[in-house]
Amino acid sequence: MTATVFLVRHAAHEHQGRIMVGRQDGVGLGPERQRHLAWLRERFSRERLDAVWSSPLERARTTAEAVAWTLRNSDTEAARPNPLAPGALARRDVGGDRIIVDEALNELDFGHWTGLTFDQLEADPLWPAWNESKATLRPPGGESVLAMQARMVDAVDRIRRAHAGGAAAVVSHGDPIKGVLAYHLGMPVDRIDNLEVDHPSVSALVVGDWGSKVLWINERYTPDPAGAEDDPPLAAEEDDG
What we know:
Elements: E1 3-9, H1 33-44, E2 51-54, H2 58-67, H3 69-72, E3 93-94, E4 99-101, H4 118-122, H5 126-132, H6 145-162, E5 167-172, H7 174-185, E6 201-208, E7 211-220
Parallel strand pairs: 1-5, 2-4, 2-5
Antiparallel strand pairs: 1-6, 3-4, 6-7
Helix pairs in contact: 6-7
């Protein structure tokens, strides 16, 4: 059976554009967090999700709470199947309401580049070389883009099987989402930066045993003149300052 998978890039973090945070945990969302999360909450109020899956990093989990708002507040909640039956899924850690945290959805491991400023990265000759040849090079001490793509594609396949006939949201990071999209578009990984995936944004696939189709890429946040940004803060926002 076919499943719809929404690929959600997390809201912008507090070091956006300055530091390569990579897999650093404890990185909170930036000054746009309230607006970004309110937009995601409204966006997914129009979808019927069976579950929300998330990278283990804080910025993704906080974003996933906004996406999962519709699960906690849907009139049809009682009719939803429970995708979290014991033994049904591997490598999972359930936190919150139907949020499944999966290590395979993590950010690319940038190794020794983690924590460096982008000015420092520009001074490393390997940085521009890696950006031009991501299929053959890897960050020093880190993960190859091909390995990242393989774990993400496998994770999306597990997720679509777990929610066959339904829909799930997957909250992850820029390069991992681009890697999944490139795979389903038949693009080489060296060209993943030709894809734009903003903070926050929603891309979508339908995937089944027959194959897959990319429905859209990079439906992104825009300021809401109707005032959705002034909604009360999500409970998750109160916890991490």
